[in-house]
Amino acid sequence: DGGGGEQTFTTSNIPNSRAPPATIQWLCDNYEGAEGVSLPRCTLYYHYLLHCQEHKLEPVNAASFGKLIRSVFMGLRTRRLGTRGNSKYHYYGLRIKSGSPLLRLMDEQQHMAMRQQPFSQKNRIKPAQKNQGVANGTPGGMGPQQATALCDISAQLQQYQQFLDTSRPLPVFVDIEVQDRNLPDGILPEHLKAFQALYREHCEAILDVMVNLQFTLVETLWKSFWRFSEAESLSLHNESEKRLPKSCLVVLCKFEPVLCWTKECDNLLYQTLVDMLIPNVLRPIPSALTHAIRNFAKSLENWLTGAMMNIPEEMVRVKVVCVNSFSQMLRRYTSLNHLAQAAHAVLQNSAHINQMLSDLNRVDFNNVQEQASWVCQCEDRVVLRLQQDFKMTLLQQNSLEQWASWLSSVVSQVLKPYEHNPVALPKAAKVFLLNWSFYSSMVIRDLTLRSAASFGSFHLIRLLYDEYMYYLVEHRVAQAKVVTPIAVMGEVLNIVYILLPHLNNRSECCGDTIRLLITRSSLHP
């Protein structure tokens, strides 16, 4: 894309526009037509969501916003740009005005993205991208309050985005497989295609707001996609109505192939978001970011069920199971990260390490093995080797990353015989986790009875290693089954969703107990 002369667009006489005048003025104040340049379609929609949040406006969905853009800037064309598998739709012939505060936001995003790329990738940035809004600019064209809000967002990105992996693209979604099924009454093949396209755009919008840590906008996007507004407000979604009427959307939400496809897409989306937010569970994360992620995770189910009030139960069940898997994983990984930071201080303290070695040498491992072998039936040589490796790793005062490498090697050794058997591996993994937990609890019991001075350190390390083992095994099971780790969790949560109504009718206490047990046993075959 080269920067050409400005192109004249019609920004008045907007036909049948129901958009607030403030939004139309905002578009005219911040964007302009220009030949030879382009802007990602999802970027414009993200800017629009920020505008609505600032002015307390109800946003329209992405499709309706696209229609609004075209009514303000006549003659816009859409192109799909980027490498295969990582391409995005762009509005061709549009750029951000030189005086817009949006330029500062774009500049910060580009700066943070380039900081996280290898040097060789920085050289791939084409100079023409500067004409797509990535350039220096001074705030102007908006009110001071909105400019301040955007600057605050930029500051937030500067502070926290270095801990994220914003380079992850949304994976490719396969087509809906109808196979030999007949389409529901009133549903045409183009309705299926429209649902696929709208859902893909919806997921891309969620990824964009999450990359920018705008967690609360996820609820807005859900409400927009599922047409949360009542009949009198359906004009907000008129473009989506043209592509896929809500009556057809409701029918598709009961169609089994669409339900299966939606579950697969959600698992891919949520796994991408987890990997983006917490790319390394052992790397320290600022407490403020951890707190924000955990609060976001706790809000997800209520946001989703509220947005889907008028959607069939079949689709709600699928969506809730997936979003609960996402929520559980975010909370588990942030807890694991917190344990890792606490354990790091212990493992780097020579006095603590020496005391732990001294106390560990007093443990009667023969007695521990006699009791544990009856329950776990582990081979003596395997237990002895793990015990010796643990002591040696402790003696060498290895870093947390070296400990993680050792734990990973243990999992690899145990599961190696089953790595090509996706049916047997989950069972073996489950047995291994139970054995590991039982054996370590016996060691902790011995340390407790001996009033070991380093009991607190051992307890902390044991919590961390149990959680990290679970993390490792979860990923090995997912790899063997060729699914995402979130999908592994989702399979069990689906059972919970089906069983809980019966459990709650009998005993709330029983229900709570089985909730915990089933959730923690998500490595079922």
UniProtKB/TrEMBL annotation:
Keywords assigned: DNA-binding, Nucleus, Transcription, Transcription regulation
GO CC term (a single one): nucleus
Origin superkingdom: Eukaryota
SUPFAM superfamilies noted in UniProt: Winged helix' DNA-binding domain
One Pfam entry name: RFX_DNA_binding
PROSITE patterns named among the record's database cross-references: RFX_DBD
Compartment annotation: Nucleus
GO molecular function: DNA-binding transcription factor activity, RNA polymerase II-specific; RNA polymerase II cis-regulatory region sequence-specific DNA binding
Residues covered by the RFX-type winged-helix domain: 23-98
Main localisation: nucleus
Name used for this protein in its record: Regulatory factor X1
Native species: Takifugu rubripes
High-level lineage: Eukaryota, Metazoa, Chordata, Craniata, Vertebrata
Gene: rfx1b
